[in-house]
Amino acid sequence: MARVPIEEGFFRIPDDPAAQPRLLGSRCPACGEVFFPRRLVCAKCLHEGTEDTELSTSGTIYTWTYCHVPMFGKKDADVSGYGVAQIDLPEGPRVQSILSGARDDFAIGMQVEIDLETLRHDADGNEVVIYRFRPAGDAAHGAGAGS
Length: 147
Hints:
Elements: E1 3-5, E2 11-12, E3 22-27, E4 34-35, E5 51-54, E6 58-67, E7 82-88, E8 94-99, E9 111-121, E10 127-135
Parallel strand pairs: 1-10
Antiparallel strand pairs: 2-3, 3-4, 3-5, 6-7, 6-9, 7-8, 9-10
């Protein structure tokens, strides 16, 4: 059974299940601005033609909230809810992501790292995964762990 992204082009799933996934961004060769998701034209200087780049595996929570509804697309959704954050990456982009952990596990300014979560299985038996962020160094969750 393979792991496949819910949508191609947003993140890379490593062959090694213990390795962290990487968000896929783009960098403008003219001004150096970095974007997520990838862009063909730089939104800062309008240069046409950006370079693909892998982004860092960790970032800092800029802000976050807790949703008290089941997550989209999860058949066995936890009705207690889940966190959603805007996360600043070292390269510059601010990304929105689901958080992995309990409501009291997060705070503005804390370090988080990327992980994968199994959303469902497709008709071929593959695990359809999304990226999410969890508290940095959280040994309770392993890279590639499903919920």
